C-alpha cells in the first residue's frame, strides 16, 4: 500500500526526490530535521508534536530542530516551471454526482487520477459548454495564474489540465476544508487568538507570493481559503485574478468582479478610482483577518449597492468591533484607507501582524520569512486537442536540472492521513 502511494507521487504529482517521505506530496516548504532528511514543514511538525524519533529510520532524534532547505525549495520551483501539465483524458475520472462547489463560472467535481493501478483523488474544475469563447478565456486566465504559482507555499496546487469531451478542466490537489467551514464551526464565528493570528500570517504569506508574481487576486474571502490535513492555509480560486504586465500597476476590469463584502472601493468603481491594483487585495485581506479575529463578516446583511455607497460615497471601511485590542485594530485600520497608495503592502502587513503576535503570551520565539517566488519561465497556453499539450514552457526555456536530492533511508515511511472532501466556492 505504501509502495503504491509512493508510485502515485512519483508519476502523478512530483518526482520522488521532491516528495515528502511523510505526506508523499511535493515539498512546498522543505525543511531538514536532525536526522538529515528533508521533509515538508507541516508534515514533520505534526510528527514531532507526538514523536521523538525519526520517521525515516526509527532512530531517536538528537533534537527537535528543523531548518529551511533552500536547495530543495529551488529544485521544487524549477520542477514546476519546467513540468508538463497535460493530463490524458484516459487518466481522469470525474464523479458527476459529487459536486464540491459551483458558481457562475463553472463547477468543481471530485475526481480521480489513475495510471495503471495507481490512484489519486483530486478536485476537477470544469467550465460551461454554453459559451465556449468565454470558457476558453477564463480557463486560460486561471491556468496561467495557477502555473505561475505552482510550487509556491500557501497557494493551491495545480496538477494539470485536460479536455473531457468538449469541456476544459483544471485538475487540482484536493484539500480538506475551507476557512469558512472553520469559522462557522466556532462559537461566535472567530478563531482562537493565537490560531487566528497564525492563519492570518499564512494568508498574508500566500498573498505576498501572488503579489511578488504580479498577480492581483481580486476575490480573497474565507470560502476561497483552504486548509490541508495539517491545518496549513492555501489560497484558491483564481478565476477572476489578473497577471499584471511589466510596467503596469493598475487595470480597469471589464465588469465589477469580486464579492461585495470583501471588495475595495476601486473594485466597485475602477474607472473613477484609477483602476484595481495589488492594494485592492490588501483591503480584502483586512476584511478576512477582521472576520477571523472577531467573527464579524464585513457589512453583514447589506446589499451590493448599500456596501458600494458605504465604501465609495461615505468613504467608510468595515466596522472594527471595540473588543479587539488596540494594536490589532490599528493594524486593520491601515488596510481600510480609501487611498490605495496609503495601504501597506501584504509583506508589511504580515510583519506588523507578526510583531503583534510576538507580544502575545506563548508567542513563537522565531518565525521565518515567507517563501518568495522565482521569476517565472515564459508561458504559452496552447490550443486544446485530444493529444496536444496543455500548457508548456516556451521553447527557449532551459531543460530542468537535477536538484539537490536529500539522502533517504530505504525504510518506507508510514502512510499519510486520508484525504477528505472540500467545498470550493467559485
From TrEMBL:
Sorted alphabetically, which InterPro entries does this protein's record hold?
Kinase-like_dom_sf, Prot_kinase_dom, Protein_kinase_ATP_BS, Ser/Thr_kinase_AS, Ubox_domain, Znf_RING/FYVE/PHD
In which residues is ATP bound? 125
| Gene3D superfamilies the record matches | Phosphorylase Kinase, domain 1 (3.30.200.20), Transferase(Phosphotransferase) domain 1 (1.10.510.10), Zinc/RING finger domain, C3HC4 (zinc finger) (3.30.40.10)
All copies of domain Protein kinase, residue ranges: 94-357
List the Pfam families: Pkinase, U-box
Does the record carry Transferase as a key word? yes
- Keywords in alphabetical order: ATP-binding, Kinase, Nucleotide-binding, Serine/threonine-protein kinase, Transferase
What CDD domains does the entry give? STKc_PknB_like
Q: Where is this region: Disordered?
A: 366-426
Protein origin, superkingdom:
Eukaryota
Q: Which residues constitute the signal peptide according to the record? A: none
Question: Tell me, which GO biological process terms does this entry list?
Answer: protein ubiquitination
Query: Where are stretches of biased composition, namely Pro residues?
Result: 409-419
One GO molecular function term of this record is: protein serine/threonine kinase activity
The record's similarity note reads: Belongs to the protein kinase superfamily.
Q: What is this protein called?
A: Protein kinase domain-containing protein
Organism of origin is: Hemiselmis andersenii
Amino acid at each position: 500500500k505504501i509502495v503504491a502511494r509512493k508510485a502515485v507521487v512519483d508519476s502523478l504529482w512530483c518526482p520522488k526526490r521532491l516528495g515528502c517521505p511523510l505526506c508523499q506530496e511535493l515539498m512546498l516548504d522543505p525543511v531538514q530535521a536532525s536526522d538529515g532528511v528533508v521533509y515538508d514543514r507541516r508534515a514533520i511538525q505534526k510528527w514531532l508534536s507526538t514523536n521523538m524519533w525519526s520517521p525515516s529510520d526509527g532512530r531517536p532524534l538528537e533534537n527537535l530542530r528543523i531548518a529551511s532547505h533552500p536547495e530543495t525549495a529551488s529544485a521544487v520551483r524549477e520542477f514546476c516551471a519546467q513540468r508538463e501539465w497535460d493530463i490524458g483524458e484516459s487518466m481522469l475520472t470525474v464523479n458527476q454526482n459529487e459536486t464540491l462547489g459551483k458558481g457562475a463560472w463553472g463547477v468543481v467535481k471530485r475526481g480521480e487520477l489513475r495510471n495503471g493501478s495507481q490512484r489519486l483523488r483530486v478536485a476537477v474544475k470544469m467550465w460551461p459548454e454554453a459559451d465556449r469563447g468565454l470558457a476558453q478565456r477564463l480557463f486560460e486566465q486561471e491556468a496561467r495564474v495557477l502555473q505561475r504559482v505552482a510550487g509556491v507555499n500557501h497557494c493551491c496546487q495545480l496538477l494539470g489540465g485536460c479536455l473531457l469531451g468538449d469541456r476544459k478542466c483544471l485538475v487540482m490537489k484536493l484539500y480538506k476544508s475551507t476557512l469558512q467551514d472553520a469559522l462557522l464551526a466556532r462559537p461566535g464565528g472567530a478563531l482562537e487568538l493565537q490560531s487566528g493570528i497564525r492563519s492570518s500570517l499564512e494568508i498574508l504569506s500566500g498573498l505576498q507570493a501572488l503579489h511578488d508574481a504580479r498577480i492581483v487576486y481580486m476575490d480573497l474571502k474565507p470560502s476561497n481559503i483552504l486548509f490541508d490535513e495539517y491545518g496549513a492555509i492555501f489560497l484558491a480560486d483564481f478565476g477572476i485574478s489578473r497577471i499584471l504586465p511589466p510596467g503596469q500597476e493598475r487595470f480597469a476590469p471589464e465588469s465589477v468582479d469580486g464579492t461585495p463584502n470583501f471588495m475595495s472601493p476601486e473594485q466597485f468603481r475602477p474607472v473613477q478610482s484609477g483602476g484595481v491594483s495589488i492594494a485592492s487585495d490588501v483591503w480584502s485581506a483586512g476584511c478576512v483577518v477582521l472576520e477571523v479575529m472577531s467573527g464579524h463578516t464585513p457589512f453583514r446583511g447589506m446589499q451590493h449597492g448599500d456596501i458600494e455607497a458605504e465604501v465609495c460615497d461615505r468613504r467608510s471601511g468595515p466596522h472594527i468591533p471595540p473588543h479587539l485590542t488596540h494594536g490589532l485594530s490599528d493594524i486593520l485600520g491601515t488596510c481600510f484607507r480609501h487611498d490605495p497608495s496609503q495601504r501597506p503592502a501584504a509583506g508589511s502587513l504580515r510583519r506588523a501582524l507578526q510583531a503583534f503576535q510576538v507580544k502575545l503570551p506563548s508567542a513563537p520565539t522565531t518565525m521565518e520569512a515567507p517563501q518568495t517566488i522565482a521569476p517565472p519561465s515564459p508561458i504559452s497556453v496552447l490550443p486544446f486537442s485530444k493529444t496536444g499539450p496543455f500548457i508548456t514552457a516556451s521553447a527557449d526555456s532551459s531543460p530542468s536540472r537535477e536538484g539537490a536530492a536529500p539522502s533517504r533511508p530505504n525504510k518506507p515511511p508510514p502512510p499519510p492521513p486520508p484525504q477528505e472532501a472540500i467545498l470550493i466556492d467559485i
